[in-house]
Design a protein that fits this description.
Layout: E1 2-7, E2 20-26, H1 32-44, H2 54-64, E3 69-77, E4 80-94, E5 97-104, E6 116-117, H3 121-137, E7 142-149, H4 153-163, E8 167-180, H5 197-208, E9 216-221, H6 226-238, H7 241-244, H8 252-267, E10 273-278, E11 281-291, E12 294-302, H9 311-325, E13 330-333, E14 347-356, H10 360-380
Parallel strand pairs: 5-7, 12-13
Antiparallel strand pairs: 1-2, 2-3, 3-4, 4-5, 4-6, 7-14, 8-13, 8-14, 9-10, 10-11, 11-12
Helix pairs in contact: 2-8, 3-4
């Protein structure tokens, strides 16, 4: 573990003391003395979501990158943590060009990632200072942050890099659907009023098959109970993921991550997993989180042999009712795409941002990706 420290001056924020930036290099662990102020910073940020919290990042790092070089960049103003960014460092190919890459510790499931920054002048100054520290750090050709909210602090960093003459690019990485729970009238049909006619018909038909009292039961679990976890794993094995080899219990790294985050979410009181029982049989399940008045769907599974009764959609209807009854404001279909878009056309845009360091490698990577390849593709499409 190594640490570099620098004080960054800012003419843009004359009312503030210059931020103090530290770059901690480690492998696989987050310093314990940073964890609590990290959580406090999350609560002060614009996007206070579970994906930014230290227990989430720590679980992901332990499962997927315990031996990778990790950079934790912090910015403090008057001794208070105001901005933080976690990055992995490696060498990889970008459009066929070998680059030294700094990339965000974000997951391929399209969970949100960003510079964690306080929603005030200190947070903006801290984000600017983090960029200036990275700019002066050297040893990298490409900065790659994926799934950054369109209005997140990452946009501030991108603009600062552009002002410093670095080539920057931004492209849509995903659109995450969500449903507002406001105004619910207490019926299941309420959630179907804006879906397509065919989708509404299919869900109504499934609901009508389970009108007998007790034929459809919803179980919400807020503890990382081994029996519940095993029931969910059995659902994954009985879904398309089992035969395809993608089920969680078949893959050690995802298994370690999900079990780690479920234990942490239980500890901090935001675990919300659901199981749906149809005529006494567990038919579908969600691994989810209730955080900041919103429900976040992380993973879902349903029995493939019950597909004709749409257990996955019945589960969504049941959870929507439960969340509304609990006074939550929103259901977030984390990851976006596919069947989730059948439930809502409202979505938030997330972007992947690139910063290319001036130099032979950075210029080459940018040129190949954004000039050479489009030109070649255009030529072949004639």
């Amino acid at each position: 573990m190594s640490l570099a420290c620098a004080q960054i001056g800012h003419n843009e924020y004359p009312s503030l003391a210059p931020p103090v930036v530290k770059v901690l290099r480690t492998r696989g662990e987050i310093p314990p003395d940073l964890v609590e102020e990290w959580r406090q910073l999350c609560s002060q940020s614009v996007h206070d979501e579970p994906f930014y919290r230290p227990e989430w990042i720590a679980a992901y790092i332990r499962a997927f990158g315990p031996k990778r070089e990790l950079l934790i960049v912090t910015a403090r103003v008057d001794g208070r943590l105001k901005a933080l960014l976690t990055l992995w460092k490696d060498t990889n190919l970008f459009s066929g060009v070998p680059v030294r890459r700094l990339w965000g510790t974000s997951a391929p499931q399209n969970w949100s990632f960003d510079v964690i920054a306080a929603n005030d002048e200190g947070g903006r100054a801290g984000t600017q200072a983090i960029w200036e520290s990275l700019r002066d750090l050297g040893g990298w050709d490409l900065l790659d942050l994926s799934d950054v909210p369109g209005d997140g602090a990452g946009a501030t960093l991108l603009e600062a890099a552009k002002k410093d003459g670095f080539a920057v690019e931004s492209e849509v990485s995903t659109n995450v659907p969500y449903l507002s729970l406001a105004g619910w009238d207490g019926t299941r049909e309420w959630w179907l009023r804006h879906v397509s006619r065919n989708f509404r018909h299919n869900v109504h038909r499934a609901l009508h098959k389970f009108t007998t009292p007790g034929s459809l039961r919803l179980h919400r679990i807020t503890s990382a109970d081994p029996a519940m976890i095993q029931q969910y794993y059995e659902l994954e094995m009985a879904s398309w993921r089992g035969p395809a080899g993608f089920a969680i219990p078949l893959n050690p790294e995802p298994k370690q991550f999900y079990e780690g985050i479920m234990r942490a979410a239980e500890q901090f009181g935001y675990l919300s997993c659901y199981l749906l029982e149809l005529n006494g049989q567990i038919a579908a399940g969600h691994l989810g989180l209730t955080y900041g008045g919103r429900y976040f769907l992380l993973k879902y599974a349903y029995r493939e042999d019950l597909k004709q009764v749409a257990p996955g959609h019945l589960l969504v209807v049941s959870i929507l009712c439960d969340c509304a009854e609990r006074g939550l404001s929103e259901f977030v279909f984390v990851g976006g795409g596919g069947w989730k878009e059948s439930w809502s056309k409202e979505a938030r845009e997330y972007r992947r941002i690139f910063v290319f360091r001036p130099g032979v490698v950075g210029h080459a990577a940018h040129a190949v990706k954004y000039r050479v390849r489009p030109a070649v593709q255009g030529w072949f499409s004639r």
